[in-house]
Write a structure and sequence with these properties.
By secondary structure, this protein is mostly helical. It has two domains: about 90 residues, Fumarate Reductase Iron-sulfur Protein, Chain B, domain 2; about 260 residues, no CATH class. Helix content is about 65%, strand content about 0%. It has 19 helices and no strands. α7 runs antiparallel to α8, α8 crosses α9 and α11 packs parallel to α19. The longest helix is centred in the middle third of the chain and has 31 residues. The chain is elongated and about 70 Å long. The two termini are about 15 Å apart. The model has no long low-confidence stretch (mean pLDDT about 85).
């Protein structure tokens, strides 16, 4: 039982977890070194020992109702000190991948985390759709490249090649659709974490500022003892700020961002900031994974590579587009614009609702539920 919730072993769970990257979980013999080592593990919310045991026993329902896997920021110290080399840090990461697939009602996350063919295939299909949108012949009626005016082939006229109002509408539809999909998956996560917990709604309402603060800052990361914890936290904050800035520029302020003249605009400064931050943060993440310098980067699932690669390419093609546009090179500008969208759109479609970008919402949500449960225990004297 877990807070009144009956849990049953799932015979397929371990197989799915191994596919998500938890290859060493069977080595764990429950010595509790990991939980004693972790700076973030507490008596009220211990990890990763309980999650390692639940994973070994196939207690899928228990893990779905447990915020523990999301409280880990993967500093890697537990894996370094594990006497059995069971790598609990990577198992917690694999659990987050698995849980992401369980929150997703479409089933696409499960397919992509289990199969590189599916993950790469979905990205390729979305990218191909973007390219076709620009290159279909005029007889189809909506090939944007075919509709470019003759003047747009002599001088850069991005508004003729890709009308700003059309792109703005498409961006808005995409943002709303992906946002609703992500929120629906987050709602499923919230139901899983709160099922069996008899906590009044007012307790959750009082703690809402914490959810917002953790979501924006991921401040708990700084409490890790690992040497690179503050560097990783700062990199994460900068990455989120850069991504959030460019997302806002494209979705909300596109008519002031994608303009024909080359004069000074405040949107341009924000665009430069986003590009620099994204290139640095995504590039440094990739370098760390290549060098395997820390425990957290020793093991890499395909999803760990794809997000920073796509993010780096999005920023790189964005600044390249700006350069050729300022040089008044029409066809290179249109070509790079198409390539830029063929990278950025698949990244958004796959990563926001189904991949690692969703963790930016899932982790604060888990911290929020865990904090409310702990506070309610203190107030009521009952186990939440």
């Amino acid at each position: 039982m877990n807070g009144g919730l009956l849990v049953q072993p799932d015979t397929r769970f371990l197989q799915d977890l191994l596919a998500a990257g938890g290859g060493d979980v069977k080595k764990c013999y429950q010595c509790a070194t990991c939980a004693a080592t972790c700076d973030l593990s507490t008596v009220a919310a211990p990890f990763p020992r309980p999650q390692m045991l639940a994973a070994q026993w196939g207690l899928r329902d228990k893990l779905l109702a447990d915020p523990g896997p999301w409280l880990c920021f993967y500093c890697g110290e537990c894996s370094q000190r594990c006497p059995r080399k069971a790598n609990p840090g990577e198992t917690m990461m694999a659990l987050r991948r698995y849980l992401t697939s369980q929150y997703d009602w479409t089933g696409l996350s499960a397919l992509m985390y289990r199969s590189a063919f599916w993950e790469l295939g979905v990205l390729a299909l979305v990218s191909l759709a973007v390219v076709l949108l620009f290159t279909l012949p005029q007889s189809f009626g909506f090939g944007l490249l075919a509709h470019a005016s003759p003047d747009a082939l002599r001088t850069v006229m991005l508004g003729s090649f890709a009308p700003t109002h059309v792109v703005h509408l498409a961006d808005t539809i995409l943002a709303v659709s992906l946002g609703l999909l992500l929120l629906s998956n987050a709602a499923r996560m919230f139901r899983s974490l709160t099922r069996g917990r008899e906590i009044p709604a007012r307790q959750y309402l009082r703690a809402l500022p914490r959810l917002v603060a953790d979501g924006i800052t991921q401040r708990r990361w700084r409490d890790c003892r690992e040497d690179d914890a503050r560097r990783n936290w700062l990199r994460h904050v900068l990455l989120v700020s850069g991504y959030g800035t460019i997302f806002t520029l494209v979705v909300v302020f596109l008519p002031w961002f994608q303009v024909e003249d080359s004069g000074f605009r405040w949107t341009g400064l924000l665009g430069y900031y986003s590009t620099v931050v994204l290139l640095w943060s995504a590039g440094s993440i990739l370098i760390d994974r290549l060098r395997k310098r820390t425990e957290a980067h020793r093991f890499s699932h395909l999803s760990d590579w794809l997000f920073p690669i796509l993010l780096f390419l999005t920023a790189f093609t964005g600044i390249l587009l700006h350069i050729v546009r300022m040089a008044n090179q029409p066809m290179p500008t249109y070509t790079i614009y198409m390539i830029h969208l063929a990278v950025a759109v698949p990244m958004l479609v796959v990563e926001v609702p189904f991949g690692k970008w969703a963790h930016l919402l899932y982790r604060p949500l888990a911290l929020y539920v865990a904090a409310v449960a702990t506070e309610w225990e203190g107030v009521s004297g009952h186990k939440a």
